[in-house]
Amino acid sequence: MIYLDNNATTSLDPRVLAAMEPIYSSTIGNASSIHKYGQRARAILARARQDIASFFSVRPDELIFTSGATEALNMAIRSVPKGSHLITSSLEHVAVMEAVKFTGCTVTYLDPEPGKGAIGVEQIEKAIRPNTSMIVLMAANNETGIMSDIEAVATLAHAARIPLVIDGVALLGKEKFSLTEGMSVLCFSGHKIHAPTGIGLLIVKKPHKLHPFIVGGPQQFGMRGGTENLAGIVGFAKAIELIEQELPEAMTRMKTLRDHFEKILISNLPNLIIHGADQPRLCNTTNIAFLGMDGETLLRHLDLEGIAASHGSACSSGGMEPSRVLLNMGLSMEIARASIRFSLSRFTTKEEIERAAASIVDSI
Ligand code: PLP
């Protein structure tokens, strides 16, 4: 099987698993307990928190561990003052699209300008109203890989004193970035960076404040009740350490392989559109319209050939809906239906890429 669906989820890095294993195989204790076991758990938790905070250049108490990015985004977004105005885009992940509905805010959903695939900072500037109290934007789109200029948006948000919530899920591990002034909240997910599912991260830069979303015990500075997922947190910290050590080389490798994949397809198939090919794109993602083909049929065929990719989102009848993101980018239903996303990881090999490309050409 050739797995090219890493923007959906990634495999657990064996080194992450090795870091987590001692937490599962010995009695670790609850980080809130007073005895030696609890002290040990607290120390492990503090170390992981410190390591992750150093990577992002933030304070340890600016981190909140969650069950995933969906929870993190819900917590960030649902803290917005009710009755105010919120700006987001029509390209956001469903976690954002659904969470904003629960805010009691008037929501502006920006569409990208034709041919862009990301929201321009000037569009956001124009949408700001006197009562705008939050901007929510993805750093990179998980379906197309097209990146937003989050630094420019952060500069605008800072000048306008509007909290900016960034969905950093697709960006982390695929592109270098640093936190700048104006980035109030950032959300990340473990299972997209070769850490396990069930662990997410929220960075809340002071002085921005959120309301607790999951209430219970006093864990995590009273901001997120519930016994911490210690193994998940340790796994997340290890995955971050590996990103820190390996990102520059991994980025070059993934980009080289992604470009090689695209070149093989372009030179063998006549009717292709690579979405966002002329835009700043993540190094691991390519979203391609195979014109004249039905993407879902092709995807099912590729699955039989041992290639896992993705197309649109699952609909209630068990089939696939054409991608909302592509439609909101202004592409036609026909193009959206013909499109498939391939997403690589740092473990994807040249042989896999060449076999997958050959199989796609044959199938078509
Ligand atoms: N944001 C983006 C861009 C995503 O791709 C995803 C997951 O697909 C999420 C948020 C939600 O992350 P999680 O699965 O950790 O809840």
Q: Can you offer a commentary on this structure?
A:
By secondary structure, the chain is α/β, with parallel strands linked by helices. Helices cover 38% and strands 16% of the residues. The protein contains eleven helices and 14 strands. A seven-stranded mixed beta sheet has the order 2-8-7-6-5-3-4, with helices on both faces. Strands 9-10-14 form a three-stranded antiparallel beta sheet. A two-stranded parallel sheet has the order 1-11. Helix 1 (14-25) packs antiparallel against helix 7, helix 2 (36-56) packs parallel to helix 7 and helix 7 packs across helix 11 (350-363). It is globular, with a radius of gyration of 21 Å. The mean pLDDT is 96. Bound molecules: pyridoxal-5'-phosphate (PLP). Residues 68-70, 93, 95, 138, 142, 167, 169-170, 189, 200 line the site of pyridoxal-5'-phosphate. Pyridoxal-5'-phosphate is lined by residues 68-70, 93, 95, 138, 142, 167, 169-170, 189, 200.
